[in-house]
Each structure stands twice: as C-alpha cells, then as structure tokens.
Design goal:
The protein has 113 residues and is of the alpha/beta class. The chain has helices at residues 2-14, 51-57, 61-64; strands at 19-22, 34-38, 41-47, 73-78, 93-98, 101-106. It is built from 3 helices and 6 strands; from the N terminus they run αβββααβββ. Strand 5 and strand 6 form a beta hairpin. The protein is globular and about 30 Å long. The relative contact order is 0.19.
Length: 113
C-alpha cells in the first residue's frame, strides 16, 4: 500500500514540479517519501497507509521541531479517513488517495524560514 501511495504522490507532483525525487536517503534528519521543486520552492509528501504510521510519524524529531524539516509546502497522502484535517500539524496539507487519483482535502501553507 505504501509503495502505491508513493507512486501516486510522484505522479501528482510531476504535474506541479520540474524536479521530483522519491524514497531517497538524505544526510538530513528526514528521508521524504516524495519531494519536488518548482520555482525555488519545495513540496514534500509523506505517505501514510495506516493511522498507526501517521501517529508514529508525529514522534519524529523533524515533526516535533518543524523548523528542521524539509519542504516549503508539506502534505500527508493517505487513504480516505486515515488522517483527518483536524489531525494535521499546523500549515500541513492533506491529500487523499481515491480510486487511483489524488483528492486535495486541504492546501498546505508555505512554511516560513
């Protein structure tokens, strides 16, 4: 399920970004599922197949200290209902995977550096 979400996230970002990477290791404290760049801004997508995975993600250092995290715009991508808008960290967007398509639930607000 996670790999399907990553593929869907890559497809969605490729329509918006000129450069897209997925599931790559970084020297930073974060290894994003999908990240892309457009016009000097980055868009990060974290894919969560289960609620437990989402709750575990919230314990990461970069979630507790968002100034250390990657992405000007940050999104979670999950099946419907796994994450609800009220569950989101401040400024994060929410994407739901519905029948092989991405449905925007909330637009991410750009993180301030």
């Amino acid at each position: 399920m996670h790999s399907s979400l990553v593929s869907l996230g890559v497809r969605w970002l490729r329509r918006r970004c000129s450069i897209v990477f997925y599931e790559f290791a970084t020297m930073a404290n974060e290894n994003p599922d999908v990240i892309g760049w457009h016009g000097g801004l980055s868009i990060l997508i974290e894919c969560k197949a289960t609620r437990a995975d989402f709750l575990q993600d919230g314990k990461k250092m970069v979630r507790r200290h968002p100034q250390m995290a990657m992405g000007h715009h940050r999104y979670y991508l999950c099946p419907p209902g796994v994450i609800e808008i009220e569950d989101l960290p401040e400024n994060w967007g929410l994407l739901w995977a519905v029948k092989g398509r991405v449905k925007m639930q909330r637009v991410a607000v750009a993180q301030v550096d």
